[in-house]
């Protein structure tokens, strides 16, 4: 799916701003049939939950409605006209005037709605978008809705971040030609100083395809005719972690010597592979330093914000991080484009978090019923997971910053049924993109002894909290546990092994002279250092992603005071003491294993 862009043959209008807003419980059954009768307005892009002071809005279960008027530009008479939603969390219905124009399920991937036959060029229409944040056992991520003693609905979910909902990313109106470029896929490689860009251009309509590749100065370095081919790039400059270089590929559709459609695509020439215990980028061993992150800020919730995007990447650079994981869902496309331009490595993760009934059982890991069953993760859940995987990989497969797909976070990979659930998804992911390694984040309950699916994947990514949830405050014990854990995985599989989560909740400003006092800034540093001592003992270890980059909102149970506090930065991006400790460790590593030459 091509992201809408302004090109010589395409135009777009941004529809962000303040929209009319209402809850389904406060309007009639068909609010899209007229002007929305509501005193409320909501900002787009932003989650709606924290914009209002009414607690009924913050934890609303059901549909909400956004509405505004839109005018189609007069000059779009001969083009198709579409609405583009960069995300609607978690399901959407789109109404143009009184008509249902389109629907989508999946809260973190974009979708288009073709309105060409509904509104003429120059015409104005009433756009109403119904959005539901509801989660069930057949959605990704999963959850359930309970009815409390008072009759109020309550959303229950099995992931540890707030279930923000709404139009959290931009909305667009755009045009495209009738005969057009539908999609572009590139696969890059190199040998010596010669690069290759293998391309496939899908089109609508009979026309000739021409492809050109330019360097950063705009100079033409390669060109070809045809919908498929390989461009050869002499004296190639590779895209590297920390040293991004992007060529621009322009695909043109030509009919009767006229360019009827044109689309540009940024291309970074690089390779990714695993070999034994090594993770290789451009044939060189790479060591991940960075974080699991969240799209989470005050007021906006999961709303994309360019100022936070820029500042977060500045903090990544300041602390010496070279990578992050899009925990636990695909991030906005602007985030990946920024990573492409600045040489930050990304592990791109699906929204499949919470596929684990063992979490409900607490640290015993004993599920109330099997995770992979008709009661929870069933065939419909798997189908939703597969569709999400298709949309994620189709959206992000051309980004050089994306080096690996993460299929799920902390699934019950130790339970019966896990292999039957995941094996078809792994096959699908490899069919959609055979060029990138696959991983999943392994939950504490899944060990080198009982995990049932690790052989299907390329990289072992483990989430471990020795010294926090297990052996909290006893770092000598935690080190022993972690040492044995890593050795067990190394003995079982000859694959790269990294830590995809490790961290300790820390209240900023809480201090102690005793390093074993949990929640203090001193303990967060001591906890990280204990983990690092063990990491550095294993040459097979390829990376460390601290949980988390910044504090983030959760559902605020008794064990969460104002959110999850495992951030190295506060929610408003102030550094805790651990940030400087990480900076001292990471800066200068330049993608190398600590202690390596």
UniProtKB/TrEMBL annotation:
Q: What residues does the Glycosyl hydrolases family 2 sugar binding domain cover?
A: 14-177
Lineage of the source organism?
Bacteria, Bacillati, Actinomycetota, Actinomycetes, Micrococcales
UniProt lists the family membership as follows: Belongs to the glycosyl hydrolase 2 family.
- SUPFAM superfamilies linked to this entry: (Trans)glycosidases, beta-Galactosidase/glucuronidase domain, Galactose-binding domain-like
Domain of life where this protein originates: Bacteria
Regions annotated as coiled coil: none
Which UniProt keywords are present, listed alphabetically?
Glycosidase, Hydrolase
Q: Which organism is it from?
A: Microbacterium hatanonis
Keyword Hydrolase in record: yes
Tell me the ranges covered by the Glycoside hydrolase family 2 immunoglobulin-like beta-sandwich domain, including all copies: 179-270
The UniProt entry, under InterPro entries, shows:
Beta-gal/glucu_dom_sf, Galactose-bd-like_sf, GH, Glyco_hydro_2, Glyco_hydro_2_AS, Glyco_hydro_2_cat, Glyco_hydro_2_CS, Glyco_hydro_2_N
Q: Pfam families this protein is in?
A: Glyco_hydro_2, Glyco_hydro_2_C, Glyco_hydro_2_N
* Name the UniProt record assigns to this protein: Beta-glucuronidase
Q: Name one GO molecular function term.
A: carbohydrate binding
| Residues in Glycoside hydrolase family 2 catalytic domain copies | 273-588
Choose any GO biological process term that the UniProt entry carries and state it.
carbohydrate metabolic process
Q: Which Enzyme Commission numbers does its entry carry? A: 3.2.1.31
Write down the top EC class of this protein: hydrolase
């Amino acid at each position: 799916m091509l992201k809408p862009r302004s090109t010589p043959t395409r135009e777009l209008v941004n529809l962000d701003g303040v929209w009319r807003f209402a809850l389904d419980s406060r309007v009639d059954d068909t609010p899209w049939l007229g002007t929305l009768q509501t005193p409320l307005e909501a900002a787009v892009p932003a989650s709606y939950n924290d914009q209002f002071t009414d607690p009924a809005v913050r934890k609303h279960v059901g549909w909400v409605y956004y509405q505004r008027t839109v005018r189609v530009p007069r000059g779009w008479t001969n083009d198709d006209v579409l609405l583009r939603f960069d995300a609607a969390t978690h399901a959407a219905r789109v109404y143009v005037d009184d008509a249902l124009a389109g629907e989508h399920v999946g809260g973190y991937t974009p979708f288009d709605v073709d309105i060409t036959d509904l509104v003429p060029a120059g015409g104005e229409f009433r756009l109403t978008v119904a959005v539901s944040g509801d989660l069930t056992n057949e959605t990704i991520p999963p959850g359930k809705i309970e009815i409390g003693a008072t009759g109020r609905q309550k959303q229950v979910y099995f992931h540890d971040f707030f279930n923000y909902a709404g139009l959290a990313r931009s909305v667009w109106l755009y045009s495209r030609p009738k005969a057009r470029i539908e999609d572009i896929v590139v696969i890059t490689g190199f040998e010596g100083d010669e690069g290759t860009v293998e391309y496939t251009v899908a089109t609508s309509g009979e026309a000739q395809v021409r492809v050109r590749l330019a360097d950063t100065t705009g100079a033409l370095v390669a060109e070809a005719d045809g919908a498929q081919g390989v461009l050869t790039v002499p004296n190639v400059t590779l895209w590297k972690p920390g040293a991004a270089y992007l060529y621009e590929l322009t695909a043109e559709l030509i009919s009767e010597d006229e360019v009827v459609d044109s689309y540009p695509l940024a291309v970074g020439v690089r390779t990714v592979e695993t070999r034994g215990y090594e993770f290789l980028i451009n044939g060189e061993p790479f060591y991940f330093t960075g974080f699991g992150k969240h799209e989470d800020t005050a007021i906006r919730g999961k709303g994309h914000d360019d100022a936070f995007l820029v500042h977060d990447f500045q903090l990544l650079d300041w602390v010496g991080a070279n990578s992050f994981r899009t925990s636990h869902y695909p991030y906005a496309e602007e985030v990946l484009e920024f990573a492409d331009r600045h040489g930050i490595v990304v592990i791109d993760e699906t929204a499949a978090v919470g596929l684990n009934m063992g979490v409900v059982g607490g640290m015993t890991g004993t599920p109330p019923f099997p995770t992979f069953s008709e009661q929870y993760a069933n065939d419909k859940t798997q189908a939703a997971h597969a569709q999400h995987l298709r949309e994620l990989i189709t959206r992000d497969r051309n980004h050089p910053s994306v080096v690996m797909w993460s299929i799920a976070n902390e699934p019950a990979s130790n339970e019966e049924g896990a292999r039957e659930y995941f094996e078809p998804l792994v096959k699908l992911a490899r069919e959609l993109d055979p060029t990138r390694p696959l991983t999943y984040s392994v939950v504490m309950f899944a060990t080198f002894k009982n995990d049932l699916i690790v052989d299907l994947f390329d990289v072992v990514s483990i989430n471990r909290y020795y010294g926090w949830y297990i052996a909290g405050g006893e770092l000598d014990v935690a080190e022993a546990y972690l040492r044995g854990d890593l050795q067990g995985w190394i003995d079982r599989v000859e694959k790269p092994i990294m830590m995809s989560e490790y961290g300790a909740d820390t209240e900023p400003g809480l201090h102690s002279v005793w390093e074993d006092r949990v929640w203090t800034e001193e303990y967060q540093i001591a906890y990280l250092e204990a983990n690092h001592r063990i990491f550095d003992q294993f040459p097979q270890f390829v990376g460390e992603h601290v949980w988390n980059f910044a504090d983030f909102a959760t559902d605020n149970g008794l064990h969460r005071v104002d959110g999850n506090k495992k951030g190295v930065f506060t929610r408003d991006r102030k550094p805790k003491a651990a940030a400087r400790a990480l900076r001292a460790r990471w800066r200068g590593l330049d993608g190398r294993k600590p202690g390596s030459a």
